[in-house]
Amino acid sequence: MINIFTIIVALFIGAAAGYLGSAMVLKRMSLVGDALSHVALPGMALAMLYNINPFIGAFVFLVFGILLVWKMEKSTKLPIENLVGIIFTASLAIGILITPEPELIEALFGDIASISFWDFPIIIICSLVIFFITRRIIKPIVFSIISDDLARVRKINIDYYNLLYLLMVAVIVALGVKFIG
Amino acid sequence: MPILEIKNLKVIVDGHEIIGGLDFSVEKNETLAIVGPNGAGKTVLFKAILGLLPHSGDVKWANGVKVGYVPQRVELIRDFPLSVGDFFDIQNISLQSAGILLNLLGIGVVDIFSANLGILSGGEFQKVLIASALADNPDIVFFDEPTAGVDVTGEATIYKILTRLQDTKKFAIILISHDLNVVYKYADKVLCLNKRQLCYGHPLHELTAENLQRLYGEDSALHHHNHGNSEFNAHKND
Higher model confidence: residue A81 or residue A25? Predict the structure, then answer.
């Protein structure tokens, strides 16, 4: 049933994801968000098997996947989308193998009407936190997109900002994947 | 005490020594020009000093030095949705101080701030980069061919403005330039670089025909007008 809570949740996730996502488009990693939801799949599947909140499983796998991408980007200097392509296709395959079939559709497509009582405050708080952190770090992030070298000369800690950014992406995807898929 | 002191700087990339054996220093309010042929390692030298490339040897900064950097080229995505005003804003530069500098550099401020960064010409964008490097009140500014893509009058303006600002703000300049006239006119010291340090000192003493020959090879006639150019084409045809 779609009620007022569902609409509020959708508004908060939508606003935070949209704000975060604008920098993603500028970083030319817009496909990453889509691929990341696949990384969440094995995590959600395992969580479902062991009766844990799927959000937690998704989040753990996303953080792991994102740390891997962040580390590989730093050491190989490959475009982030290449790395995402490699890691995330693999995790989709693993996810499909281990997700129990009845839950597969729900895990893949989400269900916005399925929020529980505790999901509501978690989502609102996480969305707000993401919104305000993004506001704080969007300037150095955009500057480093224009010129990595210039940002480093200005003593902007790009690696830190990128990691923070990717972690927020992980949170928003973990929140979103359960409801939006 | 020098603002920047370099001792035995060496950069090795994939097992090849790109530059090596560099020793020089930059004092407050001083202009050091770096000259050398293409591929001599000038930009690599900048990046090593600025900590953007791994290197060995000593790079010693004076305490609390603020650094400005104008790179040779910033590849800009043409449809990047950012206005010139936003570009200063994300660097926490006030539009007022940016406006003063842009005005000095010959860019009208009225509509530049609302213009999209992507529609600027190469020369205009270069001036925007120069303004953002200077707005922060740096103690030392690195210019990697600051006038690349700037027209002849613009080039003269830029150097005139730089020296005028330098007189009041006393910052040091390290400059990569292919134009030896610029070096004669504005530099206090020159460093000739072709993988190694071939000369270092006052331009009038160091930019001798002999040194230029060593630096640029046979083509040095191109750069040194007093020298005969009989040998110039022989090099290209062999």
Answer: A25
Handedness of CA A22, A28, A29, A34 (dihedral sign): positive
- As a whole number of angstroms, the longest Cα–Cα distance in chain B is 56
Residue A125, CB half-sphere, CA atoms under 13 Å: how many? 5
Q: How far is B212 from chain A (nearest CA, A)?
A: 31
Q: Please answer yes or no on whether A139 and B71 come within 8 Å at the CB atom.
A: no
User: Complex ipTM, two decimals?
Assistant: 0.81
Long-range own/partner contacts, residues A132-138 (CB < 8 A, 24 or more apart) = A133/A164, A133/A168, A134/A16, A134/A19, A134/A20, A134/A23, A134/A168, A135/A19, A137/A161, A137/A164, A137/A165, A138/A23, A138/B90
Nearest to B71 by CA among B140, B31, B126, B1: B126
Take residue B175 and report the two structure tokens written for it: 């400059």
Among left, alpha and beta (phi > 0; psi -120 to 50; other), residue A28 is: left
Q: Which of B52, B117, B136 sits opposite A149 (nearest CB)?
A: B52
More confident residue, B155 or B95: B95
Share of chain A above pLDDT 90, in %: 20
Residue B69: its chain A contacts at CB < 8 A?
Answer: 149-150, 153
pLDDT at B68 over 90: yes
Domain B4-237 has CATH 3.40.50.300: yes
For residue range A56-102, list pLDDT tens digits in order. 888 898 888 888 888 887 788 787 778 877 887 888 888 888 877 76
How far apart CA A60 and CA A42 sit, in angstroms, is: 10
**CA distance linking residue B227 with residue B206, whole number of Å:** 16
A36 CA: distance to closest CA in chain B (Å): 24
Q: CA–CA separation, A81 vs A85, rounded Å?
A: 6
Residue spans per domain, chain B: 4-237
